[in-house]
Structures are given as C-alpha cells and as structure tokens.
Amino acid sequence: MIDINKDIFAEMKTNTGTDLGQLSNQQPVMLIFLRHFGCTFCRAALGEISKKKQELESNGTAIVFVHMSDNQTADEYFNRYEIKNAIHIADANCNFYEQFGLVKGNFKQLFGLNTWIQGFKEGVVNGHGIGKQLGDGFQMPGVFLVHREKIKESYIHKLASDKPDYMKLAECCRI
Mean pLDDT throughout 30-55? Predict the structure, then answer.
C-alpha cells in the first residue's frame, strides 16, 4: 500500500473549500484521479461514475475527483455527465498524481493494441468521443479509497483503458 505524507491531505483543497483530510475524517472518500477531459477513457469513467454515484454515496462513500483542468472546465464536464455538485481538486501540474505514485504512461500503456480496441469501443461505439487534450496526455489515472487520512484500497491503472470496479473498491470502507 502507498504511504502518503499526511500533509498532502491538507494541501489537497477541493472546489468547496474543504481539504481531503477533513473529508476523509468524516467518511471514506473515493479519490478518483482522472486522465485529461479530452481523453475517451476519462469520459467513459465519468459516465460510469455518474451511473454509480448514488449507490456509492448511499453506502457512505464520498466521491472526490482530481483533474488537470481549471475548476470551471471541470464543472462543465461533470455537468455534461450529470455529476451535479461534484467535489473536485484541480492539479494542473500533476503534483498530487505524483504524490500518489501515479506515473506517466509509456507507449504500450497509452497506445497499445488493447488501448486502441477499448478506445474505439468507448469513443465510437459508446459515444464518448475524443476531445482536445486538456492536461498532460501522458498522465496515468488511478483510484484510492481514503479514510481517516490513510489509503485503505487502491487501483492503479496499468493501461489507460483499464476499468476499475468502483463498487468493489468502496466495499473496504462501507460505513
């Protein structure tokens, strides 16, 4: 498990003015580090979270997104995917991504055959499309369950196209 300096939790300020440490001391937090909003897989993740948000939150889990855009742009994407009043943290320089051990993707992770196949499925078949790059196109995503300023569970993407099981991740901290 990744060990994070507790100071980082206080530095991670949300669009609502609270910090990740405060939130995680109140309830478990699913911290979702997104790829850039132009990425098909980022959009697919938003679509999936939109469908599962109510169930995750009813089980006591707060959802907080980390993104590489400004808050206004992020709100536009969250609203497009019907994730109203999303709690999120802007990290244009990917400092928090790095603190959580998320790396820059290599050629296979970003452009390998499996990624291309999934990209076609998500972008064309499922209608998520492809947009302009709105952040670091090499940055890999990840999901962390944080409770009481400790990482309880994590999912680190091996490929940009990987799909975490959000419900299974949340089970570890159900309250």
Answer: 93
